[in-house]
Amino acid sequence: MTYPDPLLDAAGVMVFLLLLTGAAVLLGRYLARLFFRERPPSIVGMLEAPVYRLLGIDPSAEETWRGYARDLLLFNGIGLAFLFVLLLLQGVLPLNPAEVPGFAPALALNTAVSFVTNTNWQAYAGEAAASYLSQMAGFTVQNFLSAATGLAVAVALVRGLSRRETDRIGNFWVDLTRAVLGLLLPLALVAALLLASQGVIQNLDPYIQTASAHQAIAMGPVASQEAIKELGTNGGGFFNANAAHPFENPSPFTNLVEVFLLLLVPAAVPFMFGEAIGDRRQGYVLFGVMLALFLGAFAALYAAELAGNPLLSDVTGIPMEGKEVRFGLAGTVLYATATTATSCGAVNAMHDSLTPLGGLVPLGLILLGEVVLGGIGSGFYTLIAFVVIAVFIAGLMIGRTPEYLGKKIGAFEMQMAVVAVLTSGVLVLVLSGIALALPAGTDSILNPGAHGLTEVVYAFASMANNNGSAFAGLDATALFYTLAGSIAMAVGRFVPIVAILALAGAVAARKTVPPSFGTLPTHTLPFAVWLVLVILIVGALTFFPIFAMGPIAEQLQMAGGV
Amino acid sequence: MTLRASLRPALVLFAGCLLVLGLLYPLAVTGLAGAAFPAQAHGSLMYADDGSVAGSELIARNVTDPRYFHPRPSSVDYNASGSGGSNLGPTNPLLRERVSASVSALRASGVTGPVPAELVMASASGLDPHLSVEAALVQAPLVAAARNRSAGEVEALVLAHRVADPTPFHPEYVNVNTLNRALDAP
Q: Is A330's CB within 8 Å of B123's CB?
């Protein structure tokens, strides 16, 4: 039997997605209980009560959108400052058996912004540059907190949509605490132990020196970080090779576990939404849209890699540069699709070495704004911004007042939705343009020709959309990229968050009007198709020139034997 | 609330998270994994006859001896504290030249028949310890000749060392480190 077998792989992916959907439905219901009931499940209630006493807050006191945004920015600012200082000082702090020095200031800033914004862009090699203390108290902590922050914003938005005539959208401290205690920490603990049982290392040992093979083998507390890095769609590798490293992802089984973990919460949020607003069909539509785009992306990437590289005619099988044997073609493609559909950004293959059209798929998924499942929380709230735009355009076309879930969509809501959707695109285009105009930007390029353009655009796409994966040939350690990247990540994260919270506040204040003859139903197949088209058209129109000059041009060169 | 009033919950919550998520959680996983799965948690190490660490089962090592199976090429020279791939793009002439040179080297060492891509293309981690059965069988006659054993015997050893994994997608594959250890077994 020849390998790979596309039919068998397709069947495997279907079974995998079926299991994922089942788990997401159940988790979605649980999340609805966790965040939207009068009281959370009793165990969580017991755990959180002392936390609120320590914080000195009344958990039932809710905030306006401005107060919610203020608390969120303050908390993330503290996290940023702490991580920045920790990275600068790690050389003189404990738990540093490899005796790595502190980060240089620009790199420390870039890395701190990166982990606080859920991007996990890495301009350093983990095993060579970060101490165990930085990995645990720095990166692992922000892996939890940036994920919880994204989820909190999604929860606040759902509250806004499901309430009427109030200026309150929730309590940030409560949402964050519940996201950590009621969801991320217990799941991460179980996942970390499962991964450790399969060969993902977890220790505080010094690096091992082997006498015979002259190898220094990096060690560390990997499983605890691997679990939350996937679950929180963070994606920052403990090692430079990320989830391609055998100590992060040792087998085909752990590969599927990791893909499952990184898709789980983003897939559950639409179902949570359906439960919370009392209309499950609205959640099904959003999940269906995500799934359709996901399957299309998977198939395109799979086909591109299966077709291979005609320039390398003296070898057989799929091109294996930058891929690992154990994952197989479908396991590699599934990971690359999942990690860029969400904002995860972990990789189990080097995206820079994918075929040109293959590399276009992850780039395209990132540039669509990561709404295909998307980051934990952030994928959902960005998708809702697209829904608002889709409803508005449809309203203009058929001459009806745009409304969604009984909420009239006015000028302010539209402005906020457009800010949420277009911020990252503007960042990508402007910063890529600057990079290509300056020697400081082009000096970092590794691969010549059209591929080099893709490297630069991929970098800013990844940072502005808080993904974190890379066409890693690009030398991201150059001062230009660390500083421009810090801006891209911070603006790309927090401007949309504030816009979404403002949107949540605006719709919460509105009356809910019952559906009438003039209402555009948003739980139907035609609306789902319309939403897919709006997402693709916004993405394609914004970025088509780049796709044409980068990956598509390179594909034509490759096919032509240049 | 005001910004001032928010300072206490922000600072206390961050400090609590630092303690629980940054120390207790990873240390608890370290303790539990170390107790329940000590070999895996400490790197699936392999030991030489004298008790010294020979390497990790999961990490490829540089092999030059013709009596052993060779792992996939590494663009980081099998540096297990500096993992990574080449990141060469598909149309980069450097990739083509390197692959051609590797194919020529394999031919010179006596490999006949088709060359599986993985044997001449560097892995993502630079530490991939695995080979597809196909890529191992290509090497089997050379290993057998260097050891004065029959090719059939070595091929049988390859097939006996196929890694069992319950999930789909992967090709039939072997772990080069365990396969090479088995070659030396009496």
A: no
